[in-house]
Amino acid sequence: MNPRSLPAALCLAGIILTCGGCEQTETGDGPSTRPAGAPTERVTPVAPNDVEAALTADEGTEDVIAPPEPVATGAPPPADNEPQTPPEPESEPMTYGDLLGEIITDDGLVRYDLLDEPARKEALGAAVQRFAEAELPGADQDRLALWCNAYNVNVLSMALAESRKEGFISVLETEGFFDRRTITVAGERITLDALKNNRIRPLGDPRIHAALVCGTVSCPPLRGEPYSADRLDEQLDDQCRRWVNDPTRFRMDEGKLGLSEILNRCDEDFKVAPYGNEIGFVLAWADPSSEMTRYIVNADRPQVRWLTRDWTLNQAPISTPAGD
Q: What is the dihedral of CA 86, 91, 92, 97, to 10 degrees?
């Protein structure tokens, strides 16, 4: 309470105070004046409750400064009956299959530029890690699917890293790319060449040459999905058709049968049923109406010209659509 309001409150209660000059008191005989400093006398007794009431009444006359209104810093809380929007669920990590579907073009080339996007780069690294930590299956079909996937994803990852380095020419010109640098597949440290020649080829299926992609233009087209054991025969058959009927890899060339040099380097793999040799492999998968088929069927001794390999990175132009 303001100290200056105390005398007024006490006066209201009938108590006389000295105010430094003459005071007037009212008695039964009328008003009288006392000199300043004279003893003050009580005119009427006042109960303590009356004093408290007077003080309280006086207090009520003081100005009260209300606290400032809170400033709104966000949206008002929703009403009790207003439905609240649930938080958005976290997106699932991109799978290896999703990744291939987004970066592989219809002709089997790679949009390496899309792999600079963080989510895709993370998905590629996760796929490499997945095949590194996988448990090696017992069945040949399961092993073959695992090894083909591991070969291709590691080539893809390594080619991406090398292509970002200054002076990169091709994976062939990258020292030790195939024969000295090691990768991990199902817990085993191994080179790309050893994985292909010591693990995959001994399984005796020539179709794997249409599935393994070494990161160059002359290699088979990269498939836009992973290989799976339950669909492996179907997938390998489709890869062989795509590979053999691609005129950049197989075609008639100056009156001779122009074949991918891969068949020449691995010719022993094709000397099995139902092919017999490299030409038999081409005949099995070439379009029956193609010029190559007509030549093989009609020539007494088909002549072969091995096409020069193009070791340029299997990179699709940026303008080429990828995915579905």
A: 140
Element (H, E) at 98: helix 96-103
Q: How far apart are the first and last CA of the chain?
A: 81
Selected residue with higher pLDDT from 23 and 206: 206
Query: What residues are paired with 191 via a beta bridge?
Result: 182
Residue corresponding to tokens 């040799």: 277
CB of 309 within 8 A of CB of 265? no
How far from the centroid of its chain's Cα atoms is residue 25's Cα? 92
For the chain, the structural domain boundaries read 3-59, 96-307
* pLDDT-based confidence at residue 143 (cuts at 50, 70, 90): very high
DSSP-assigned letters across all residues of 238-280: HHHHHHHT-TTTSEEETTEEEEEHHHHHTGGGGSSTTT-SHHH
List phi, psi (to 5°) of 283. Answer: -65, -35
How many residues in the chain?
Answer: 324
CA dist., res. 58 & res. 19, Å (int): 19
pLDDT tens, 179-235? 999 999 999 999 999 999 999 999 999 999 999 999 999 999 999 999 999 999 999
In Å, the largest CA–CA distance within the chain is 157
Residue-by-residue DSSP string for 128-195: HHHHHHPPPPSSHHHHHHHHHHHHHHHHHHHHHHHHTSTT---STTSTTTTTT-EEEETTEEEEHHHI
Angle (CA) 280 284 286, round 5° = 110
Residues 6+ away with beta carbon under 8 Å from 180: 191
Q: Is the pTM of this model over 0.85?
A: no
Using a 10 angstrom Cβ sphere, with 0-12 exposed, 13-18 middle and 19 or more buried, the burial of residue 220 is buried
Alpha-carbon Rg for the chain, nearest whole angstrom, is 47
